């Protein structure tokens, strides 16, 4: 049976799929790969169905050894030096590893999260129907550690495609633009604040993880003061705390929140958020 032996996980390497939808009533968020487009593409490149589990590797510094059988793999998402037995591997393309081959993901030069798919998918025990690691609720497979052996699932019926229709582009290294929908509490903010949200630049802070990304810019002044009762949130909800700085909730964010949500980042733009780095400039447009 094919398997992947982790030799060095880097700062954070997680098993992720497309998440566990439908459990918000239990207080369980969707979770899953933050860059869903990159996860789907990685799976498609090796002939997997969309929902097969992949590895999400933060920043790089990851090294693993293939064992048991020859295995197709593909790396998408972040852009950096990827090698197999010391030889460069093309990004966003399927490659084949022999037993004993060592895969390394170097420091990401663009973006921040690699997505690694293997043909057959990572075969960890599912929790609530998903193999995703939820870092806030501590559900799903544990973060990877040296020596961890990951089973690889049975090969799918589909063959590895000869070519893929999507061109490979690295994540943006400069300013990014995200599309916003109106939030349920947009009317809690002044006209000037809603104007500033779209007309002024924001910057990603170091307070960024799978739960949310904090931005800094011109404080968003509220029209309505006072406390807000907890209400539902979804990935992409932009909630604004008392200081007027927004936080974009991501896949591991809570299902309820107590701060007003001024806007909601569209699903396509959430894939962009998954790859932004601290210090990177962000601007917004109307969806």
Structure, described:
By secondary structure, the chain is mostly beta strands. The chain folds into two domains: 3-151, no CATH class; 176-286, Cyclophilin. 9% of the residues lie in helices and 36% in strands. The protein contains three helices and 18 strands. It has helices spanning 36-45, 191-199, 267-273, and strands at residues 3-8, 12-16, 54-58, 62-67, 71-84, 87-88, 94-97, 102-118, 149-151, 176-182, 202-208, 212-216, 231-232, 237-240, 246-249, 256-257, 261-265, 281-286. Strands 1, 2, 3, 4, 5, 6, 7, 8 and 9 form a nine-stranded antiparallel beta sheet that branches. Strands 10-17-14-15-12-11-18 form a seven-stranded mixed beta barrel. The chain has a two-stranded antiparallel ribbon with strand order 13-16. A hairpin with a 2-residue loop joins strand 5 (71-84) and strand 6 (87-88). The longest helix is centred in the first third of the chain and has 10 residues, at 36-45. The protein is elongated, with a radius of gyration of 20 Å. It starts with a strand and ends with a strand. The model has no long low-confidence stretch (mean pLDDT 96).
Describe the structure in brief:
Pfam families: CT_A_B. The chain has 287 residues and is mainly beta.
Distance between the termini: 47 Å
N to C succession of SSEs = EEHEEEEEEEEHEEEEEEEHE
What fraction of the residues are assigned to beta strands by DSSP? 35-45%
Judged by helices, strands and strand pairing, the structural class is: mainly beta
User: Any idea how many domains?
Assistant: 2
Instruction: Describe the largest sheet.
Output: 9 strands, antiparallel
* Strand segment count: 18
Percent helix? under 10%
What spatial form do the alpha-carbon principal axes imply?
A: elongated
